[in-house]
Amino acid sequence: MKAQARFVLADPRRRSSRCEEALAACNLEIAALRSEGLTRGLSIAGAEQLFTLGFALEQMLRDCADLERCVQELARPSPLDGAGEG
Prior knowledge:
This protein is mostly helical. 74% of the residues lie in helices and 0% in strands.
């Protein structure tokens, strides 16, 4: 639980790089499984699930990066925020 709290409170750039590192590690493991021929024993459905998981994780990482960008844009003060005051 404490590790999760640290992750949530961490600097977004650091959090994003940790996610990228985790995805890269996952991709390396899948590549190692493939190069060792260990995926050949999977059923078609099992292979589909494995590669679908990899695709889904990559898409989720892109979506999170896009969401982070949108949040940062919305968090910036608008030049119009101070207009009309004074």
